[in-house]
Design a protein that fits this description.
Shape: globular
Number of helices: 7
Distance between the termini: 43 Å
Amino acid sequence: MKHRGRHRRRRRGQALRATLAGTALALTAAATLISTSQATGSGSPGGLTALGTASRTAPLRLHEKPVDLDTLDRLTKDMGGNVGVDGVLGRADHAMRDEAGCSTAERAALPVEPTATRAYCWDEGDERTRQWQPRSVTTSGDADDDGHWGEHRVILAGWTHRDRQAAAPTRDRGLARVAFVDATDPRALRYSWVLLVAPRDGGRDFAPVRSALDGMVWYQDKLIVTGAHGSGLLVFDMHRILRADVDSGAVGRVSGGYSAGGYRYVLPAVDAYEPSGGACTRRGGTPCFGSLSLDRSSAPDSLVAAERPAAGSERTRVWRYAYSTAAYRTGLLADSRGRVDTVEAYETKAAGVSGVLAHTPRGTRGARWYLGQAPEAPTRHGSIWRQTEDGAEAATCTADRSHACWGLRTGSLSYWQETGEVWTLTRAAGRRALYAVPLSAVDGSLE
C-alpha cells in the first residue's frame, strides 16, 4: 500500500464519490404490511446503562498473545512472500450483480425504512456461496480515512461454513473465509476468496481457522475478527496474504507445497486477544464476542463490540477498546503490558443484537450507539435502534407502527466515514445481499 504515517493518505482529489443511477429501493406492499404479532423490535429497549464499576467491566478485559515473529517470517518466506491486497483483487473472478440484477427474494431482504442507496448480490454461479453464510463486513473506509487501500476501494465480507443439514460433520464446517471485493468501480464490483488460517509447527505448516465471523474490522494494516465460538479475537496482517501453490482439498502443507482447500490465497493469524476470565459464558460473565465495528469519531480511534446474543437473554453488553497510537503497533489495541481494558461499556435491553456502531457527530458530546436487532421470527425484518443513555429511537414503517424496518437477518454494521454510509449484509439463504444506507438517512428516519 502507498501510504504516509499511520496509513492515512489524503488524496481527496481522487476520492471516488459513487453515484448510482436510479432511485432508492422500494419493497412490495406485502413487506410493509407486517402485523404487530409478526413484527419484532416494536418495544423500545430504552436508554443505555453504563457499566460503571471495575467489577462489571473486568470480564471484558483481554490479554494479548502474539504469534512468534520467526514463525510468521518462515511461513511467509516458504510461501513466496506477500501477495498483497492488489494481488488478490487482480485475480477477482466473481462479478457481483447490482440491485437491478438481484432476484425478487434478494431485493425483498433489503431494508424498508430507510431504503438502501446501493445494493449488490453475489455471483449466482459461485458454488462457494452454497452452504456458506455471510456474517460480517468491513471496508477500506475503516482501513484508511481516505477510503482507499492503494488505488482501490475495497469491501471485505466474512463468511463461515454453515452446513447444518449434513448427517455428519463436514470437512468445511466452521471454516472462515473473506470475500475481497474490489469496489473501485461502483458499477462493476468483483470479488475473490481468501481463507483464514493459523500458523503451526513453527511456521512450517498452517491449519484452518474455524469461526462464525460475527464481527470483523480492518484498521490500518490489521484485520481483527471474532475467534472460535466468539471467545476472544484473532488478528491478521494484510501484509502477509500468501498464495497456495497446490490445488487440493487439503488445508496446510502437502506434498509439493501448500494447499488451501481449493482457494488461491490464505491469510495467517499474527496475534490474538483472549478473555482474561477464560472461555466465554454468555451468561453475564466473560462475553462471547459478536458484532464488531470501528469508531473513527472517538479519540483515539476505537474498536466497538457487542456480545453474541444468548438464548433467552434480555440484556446485551456493548463496549469499546481504544486502538494503540504507537507507530510500532499499527492496527493493534492499546495495551498495558499485554492487557487490554475497555474505555467505555454499557448494557442495553435490546436483545438479539446482530450489529453495533458507535459514532459521535461533530459538535456534539457523547456517542450515539446504533444496534441492529434481529427479529424473533427468522423470516421477518429486523430493527435498527439509535441509543444513548437518555433513550432509544427507531424508524417505523408500517400502519401498525412496527419498528421491523431494517434488513432481513442482517450481519454486522460498518460505517464508511468518508462517504457517510453504513454497510451491512443479509445472510438468509436465497436472500443474500450487500447494501449501504447513509447514516444521515438512518438518523432522518427516527422518531
